[in-house]
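User: My collaborator and I are trying to settle a disagreement about how two of our proteins should look. Neither of us wants to argue from intuition anymore, so we agreed to look at predicted structures for both before our next call. Could you fold the first one, then the second, and keep them clearly separated?

Assistant: That sounds like a sensible way to settle it. I'll keep them separate. The first protein:
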Amino acid sequence: MKRKITLILAIVFLLAAVTGCDSKPPEGETAPTTKKADASEALFSKEDFPRLDGSTANIPMALLMTRRLLGISEEEAELAVSFSTTPNAYMNLIYGSADLLLVYEADGPTKDSIRESGVELEYYPIGRDALVFIANEGNPVASLTVKQLQDIYQGIITSWGELGGEDKEIVAYQRAPGSGSQALITKLVMGDLPLMEAPTELYPAEMGGLIDALAGYNNTKNALGYSVYYYVSNMYMKPGLRLMAVGGVTPSNETIADGSYPFTNEFFAVMRKDEPEGGNVRRLLAWILSEDGKQAITDSGYVGM
């Protein structure tokens, strides 16, 4: 009996050795793989790779760049990339805890803090995004004009009935002061017009918090808010919400690229001006501005320059 069991085990091990020599998986299956970077070889080591920071909406771009430049897996890149939001990223760069930013434009107070610090920065536009407005898909109002948005956020228009919708109050959410999207509504929509004061609960601190608030508001057809296009299209959106057209133009990669959607703006790679020539930060910037870097931006789903 023992000899029979030994013989069976020998046959099993022999078959395993023979099939193991064939690298092809069984028909209809794929071999398990760890997703590595697309680049043929790493251009940086983990030790000399500059410390990245930036805006929440730029995280996917940073992840793909990190994968390609270090030749690491998705999981490793996620551990390596930590972004602290637009205003905090600028301060981290100023005070030396970040080396290079992938970031949206700073708001006025953050720009004031940068000037007061005396640290000079270099800005390189690397892509385009847009400020977009979000409402409930059951709201019959599908498009707003620039003037209507200005009047809503000044508190002049207060009911959807004034815009052809139901006679219900417009619950207009804003982002927290200092956020990238708050800087964009001031620059692209309001200009010198004052934003109305809103109750504290209408200022979600996080980008995802605004989306959650819009989706969860008791009278969902009433709510209106804003964010950046890439974030709501690729990173975080809730069922039951949709993007508003502006002047009849719906935001998309195509309308952002050709400028027909009105609220477009560039985002940037930013570093300190005193970074030495030939150093790792300038090497990284040169790659971002190269064809390989531009390809990484578009491969991440952004609108390139």
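The second protein, kept apart from the first:
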Amino acid sequence: MGPPDDRMFRVLLRLRVRDAAGFERAWLAVGDSVTGHPANLGQWLMRDTDDDGAYYIISDWTDEASFREFEHSREHVWHREQLHPYRESGSMVTMNVVYHLKPGGQPAEPEAAPR
């Protein structure tokens, strides 16, 4: 049996970039094209501690259908175009969040997207 439709959906991107400083500036400049979407719950940019050219981007969504809608939108195409000059390679993994453990807490019910 698959997860309920109301579980939070997470996207993890791994990118190799050239010109790390330029990439970070461009990512910040276009970030609201993702976080401005009503189904987006936030996103994070992380740089690998062992490889300065490797970055990870995590974005959380209320559900997969909303992410897929955004993924095929003009806004996302524009977002990718702004970052493309810095990108050497990349991969994407998608997942449903099953549990979220908070400090000092016990396992909770399966994580549902906030309503």
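Some points you might bring to the call about the second protein. Residues 9-96 form a domain with the Alpha-Beta Plaits fold (CATH 3.30.70.100). The mean pLDDT is 88.
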